[in-house]
Amino acid sequence: MPTDSKMAKFLQSYGYDLILGAIAAIYVLMAPYTKVEESFNVQSMHDILYHRHRLDSYDHLEFPGVVPRTFIGAFIISFFASPLVFIISFLGFPKIYSLVAARFVLGCIILSTLRFFRIQIRKKFGYQVESFFLLLTTLQFHLLFYSTRPLPNILALGLVNLAYGNWLKGNFYSALNFLIFATVIFRCDVILLLGPIALEFFLTKSISFWKTLKYCVGTAVVTAGLTIFVDSIMWKKFVWPEFEVFWFNSILNRSSDWGTHSIHWYFTSALPRSLLVAYPLSLFGILLDRRVPFLVIPVISFVLLYSKLPHKELRFIISSVPMLNLSAAVAASRIYKNRKKTIWKLANMVMLALFAISAGCTVFTFMASYNNYPSGYDLKRLHQISHPANVKGEEWVHIDTFSAMNGISRFCESAFPWSEHPSVDGYKCLFSEEGFDRVELRQGFPPIVLVKRAKVYVHQDMKADDQLHKKWPGC
C-alpha cells in the first residue's frame, strides 16, 4: 500500500510532465536530424562536446554564418548532456546518439519551464483549466516538436515560460527580468513581447517606474556583459551577438533576403497551424473570463508588431503559443462545465469534433516532418551500406548546400567519414533518397496524401574504382 500511495503521488505530481515528455521524445527518436535554422547551435554543441578547449577546430570559425550567435545556450545544453555523451562515446555508439541526447536535455529544460507555467495556471485557474491546457498542448504538433530543437527561439521560449509563470504569480519584476534575459542573450525580438507586457504593468500600476529602472537596467547590463564576455572569447573578437542580429534584421531589414510573407500571415497561417483547435478557443476565452484579456492582449500585440517585418516564420512567434493555449483552456473548461445546458451542449460537441480534427492534423504534420530530412537519412544509409573493412583507402563524400540544410550535421559523421542533383557530369548515381514534397488532394481514400519525390542523390566518380564492391540500386 505505501508503494502504491507513493506511485499515485508521483503520477499526480509528474504525470502530465511524463505525457508531454513522452510525446517530445517520440518526435526526437523518429526525427533526430536537424535543419539549417538549427545549424549554429547544433555545430556548437558538437564542438563543445568533442573538441572542448581546442577552439581552432570549432566549425563557426570556418563557417561563421551571416550573423554571429551566442554560445551560452550551447554551453548549457552541452554541460548537462556531457555525461550521456561520455557514455555514448565509451560504448562506441555513433555520434548521432549524442545529438539525440543533447536534444533530450534541451527538451527537459524547456518542458520544465512549461511545467512551472502550468503549475501557476493550476493555482490561478484551477485543475480543470490545467488539464485542458495539457490536452491542447498534446494535440498541437509544433510546440512539442520544436521544444527539443536547438533554435535561439526555443532557448528564449524557456525564459518566456518562466516570465509567464511569474506573471501569474504576481512577481512582475521577475517576469520582466526573464524577458530581458531572453532579449539580450537569445532573441532580440523578444523585446516586442517585453514592451507590451511592461506597458500593461505600468498602466495597471503593477510596477513603479523607478523600481523597474533599478531592477531591469541592472539585469540588462549584467546579461549584456555575460554574453559579450563569453561570445567575444568564442568568436575571437569583440561581439554582442544579439545586437548584431537586431541591426541586421531590424535596422538593415536584411532578413527579407530569405523570403517575405503578407502582413496577415501570422494570423491566417502560422497561428492556425500551430494552435489548431486552440485558435478559435483562445478568442472565445478572452470573452469568458475577465482575467484573460490582460494576459492575452500583450501577446497578440507581440504578434501584431512582429507582423510588420516582411520575413516571417512560425518559430518567430512560438513564444505566443503557451499563453494563447491558456486562454483556450479557460474557454474549453467553461464549455465542458456547462455541457449539459442546451446552448453549451452544441458548443461541447463542436469542441470535441475539433479536438479529433486537431489530433489528425498533428499526426499528418508529423508524417510530413518525418520525411523532411532526406539528407540525414541518405547519409545514414550510405554508412549502413558501406563498411571500413571493405575499403583499402580513404573515401570522401561531397555535402552540397541542399544536403547541409536538410538533415546533415557534424553529429552525422560516423567512424568512416562519408548532392541534390540527379545527374553530375563524370559521376554515376548510386542511389537516391526521397523527401516530403507536397500535400495532394485525391478522389477516394485517403482523400489527402503526402507526396514524396527524390531529393538527395549519392554519386561516385566514374573514374574511381568501386572499392566497396556493392551493387548499387541506381536512381
In short:
A hairpin with a 6-residue loop joins β1 (427-441) and β2 (448-461).
In words, what does this structure look like?
A hairpin with a 6-residue loop joins β1 and β2. The chain has 475 residues and is mostly helical. It has 19 helices and two strands. α4 (72-90) crosses α5 (96-125), α5 runs antiparallel to α6 and α6 (127-139) packs across α16 (321-337). Strands 1-2 form a two-stranded antiparallel ribbon.
| Strands, total number | 2
**First CA to last CA: what distance?**
63 Å
Strand order of the largest sheet: 1-2
How large, in whole angstroms, is the Cα Rg?
24 Å
Q: How confident overall, as mean pLDDT? A: 87
Sheet with the most strands, sense and barrel status: 2 strands, antiparallel
Q: Helix fraction?
A: 55-70%
Strand/helix succession: HHHHHHHHHHHHHHHHHHHEE
Secondary-structure-derived class: mainly alpha
Return residue spans where pLDDT drops below 50 for at least 5 consecutive residues: none
- Strand content bin: 5-15%
Anisotropy-based shape: globular
Number of helices: 19
